[in-house]
Specification:
Blueprint: E1 9-13, E2 16-21, H1 23-36, E3 42-46, E4 51-53, H2 61-68, H3 73-85, E5 89-93, E6 96-99, H4 100-117, E7 120-121, H5 122-129, H6 133-145, E8 149-152, E9 155-158
Antiparallel strand pairs: 1-2, 1-3, 3-4, 5-6, 7-9, 8-9
């Protein structure tokens, strides 16, 4: 009766509960919490046994899902590619996808900011968006790639201004 699919797990970051449910989703939450701050203590409990357990969350999110989930990584990748083809998602790099509407909004913010200030560097982008460097740099490179911005040194200007 206590099969892996029915088992429940709870993860805590310090005193704060960060996830509860199937092992795969809890493992992903732990991986993301550790990526935000590797020094934080993260604990996971087997709700049935009431004991802490150790799990390996090394590798990509796809590898973690493969290790703990019932979903196949190839299926997840296929679903992402379908959403890209349908225009709902935009692939920034191998491991990073964004909703197309969110990128359109971000593009508008960037264009407005550069028009007002004359340029945008990585720190300015972080301040403008509130995103961490993990997302800021790939997004800045994406806007360079699609020819919205042009990188000159550490600064971005609008394409055609240079």
């Amino acid at each position: 009766m206590n099969s892996e699919s029915q088992a429940s797990y709870t993860a805590f970051e310090g005193y704060r509960r960060i996830a509860r449910g199937a092992l795969a989703s809890v493992a992903l939450a732990i991986k993301r919490a550790m990526a935000r701050d590797p020094a934080h203590a993260v604990l996971i409990f087997d709700d049935t046994a009431g004991r802490p357990i150790d799990i390996d969350v090394r590798g990509s999110e796809e590898e973690v899902l493969a290790r703990f989930g019932t979903e196949k990584p190839g299926l997840i990748r296929e679903l992402l590619e379908v959403l890209v083809r349908e225009g709902m998602l935009v692939k920034i790099n191998e491991d990073l996808y964004f909703h197309s509407a969110a990128l359109d909004d971000l593009r508008g913010k960037i264009v407005d900011h550069i028009r007002e200030t004359g340029g945008l560097d990585a720190q300015g982008f972080k301040n403008l968006t509130g995103l961490s460097r993990k997302f800021s740099i790939p997004l800045l490179e994406y806007f360079d790639k699609i020819k919205v911005t042009l990188r000159i040194g550490d600064k971005r200007i609008l394409r055609g201004q240079g």
